[in-house]
Amino acid sequence: MKIIKGFVIAFSIYSKIPVPQFDWKEEDMQYHLCFFPLIGLIIGALEAGWFFLGNAVEISHLCKTLIAVAIPLLVTGGFHMDGFMDTMDAFHSYQDKEKKLEILKDPHIGAFSVLMLVLYYLIYGAAYAELTELSAILVVGIGFALSRSLSGIGVVSLKAAKKDGMLAYFADSAQKKRVLAVLIIEAVVYSGCMIYVNLWAGLAAVVVALLCYGYYSWKSRKEFGGINGDTAGYFVSLCENAMAVAVVVVFHFIGNCFPVK
Predict the structure, then answer these.
(1) Which residues have a Cβ under 8 Å from the Cβ of 23 and sit 6 or more positions away?
(2) What element of type H or E holds 18?
(3) Residue 72 to residues 32, 100, 153, 169, 200: CA-CA distances in angstroms?
(4) pTM of this prediction?
(5) Over the stretch 89-143, which tens digit does the pLDDT of each residue have?
(6) Alpha-carbon dihedral 104, 94, 208, 141, rounded to 10 degrees
(7) Can you list the alpha helix ranges (DSSP code H) found in 77-165?
(8) Residue 194 · residue 202 · CB < 8 Å
């Protein structure tokens, strides 16, 4: 029963996908992070389905690109992008750690969060406009699950910026060793699938995802003394954008030089 409740809780927190509702107890949260990457798989499946539909009915390239970029927002309700924007405001405040943590909790948005949001989607949209090969779409699609696996690994293994807050509560509620083991296995499986679909693009996306995780860990410690819910959302957003760009770069500059599956 805890496993089923964990599944429902994960989809309730991290997505807008309708699931049964019930009153949560702390013990029900123990394994919910194990199911976090499944939301990424659903996003990836929707992206691939939209790719097929767009080609089948000859939807314009601009329309295909804009809807593809919107799909993650529609599924998650902007949950991770909210963290990205808050983190951008804090990063660009150039204040001390305590002030930056206060900025993360501030419900208002600042100029830098808006500017970075525009920049983010300009880059993301440009990358998606170049994703025309099926294997590229599949690599990026599986990447939504990889980014969430790595984010979950961070929640249960990296130092929290504060002992209170949503992320600290999730981490404390989890069966850390078991959840960490499951998330590592998931990350390895998703990485292997991405590389199998397309050797060079998959390998590039996995390497970039790991680099983003290392940067996220270092930057969070440096700026805030650890991670929190907002920085976790920042990582998921950053990682997915970076993987899409990496896949595009491979197809443009390496795909013509090396055989790809």
Answers:
(1) none
(2) none
(3) 20, 27, 21, 25, 25
(4) 0.92
(5) 998 887 888 888 888 887 788 888 999 999 999 999 999 999 988 899 999 999 9
(6) 30
(7) 79-91, 97-105, 111-129, 134-157
(8) yes
pLDDT > 70 in the chain, percent: 90
Q: Measuring CA to CA, how many Å separate 202 from each of 21, 70, 154, 225, 231?
A: 37, 23, 22, 32, 25
What one-letter code names the amino acid at 129? A
User: Amino acid identity of 12?
Assistant: S
Half-sphere exposure of 138 (CA within 13 A, CB side): 16
Q: Which of 229, 261, 218 is nearest to 83 (CA)?
A: 229
Q: What is the pLDDT of residues 25-61, one digit of tens each?
A: 767 678 889 999 999 999 999 999 999 999 889 899 9
| E strand or H helix that includes residue 259 | none
Do 191 and 205 contact (CB within 8 A), yes or no?
no
Q: What is the pLDDT of residues 150-165, one digit of tens each?
A: 999 999 999 887 776 5
Count, residues in the chain? 261
